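#onboarding

Welcome to the new folks! Below is a worked example of what a typical request in this channel looks like: someone posts a single protein sequence, and someone else replies with the predicted structure as tokens. Don't worry about understanding the tokens yet, we'll cover that in week two.

Example request:
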Amino acid sequence: MSYDRTLSRVETYFDRTATRTWERLTSDAPVSRIRETVRAGRDRMRAQMLARLPDDLQGARVLDAGCGAGQMTAELAARGADVVAVDISPSLVGIAEARLPIDLRGRVSFRSGDMLDARLGRFDHVMAMDSLIYYADADIARALATLGGRTDGRVVFTVAPRTPLLMTMWRVGKLFPRADRSPTMVPHSPASLAQALAEAGAPGRLAALERVTSGFYISQAMELAS
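Example response:
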């Protein structure tokens, strides 16, 4: 499936099907035990990604690529960054904008659309938490080549790791009609991504960071550094 077709499916899922679920998951509201593990895993992953950037981001322009309900956005702005927060789902962007503390609103520009849009400009750093997990190697490589070419510092992102559990879930998920399920995470290995990046001519060095496993949340952090 091409990048554009996958992007369309992701938009439909998050903007029409799962908006209320993600609004609750990313709040302090009570959730099921399974979703508690996902919430905890996402909190750990976000903290790890933020640790790759300076504590003081005064004067830095940072892209929150796939900002969702805005948790990463708020933390970047609190560090002093000028943040461009973009998501394919206008509904999630609306939630993120409504939740942002008043004192941080002057630091954030919210956009709905493709995180690869050239009109977003250049950045010092890019954060892409769980926004590339539905794409194939070649599409991720092209996305990173695009983002890396417009970024002076780090592109920190996540992928679904190629673990036995996720590979089993992926194969079973392919048995069901696409119309009846959410976009499927595509598992990757650092080696396969490195090869795809080399073929795409992406600038910088690729490094695997920590993998976070928390119940049903399994995600691999990675970094493309200039």
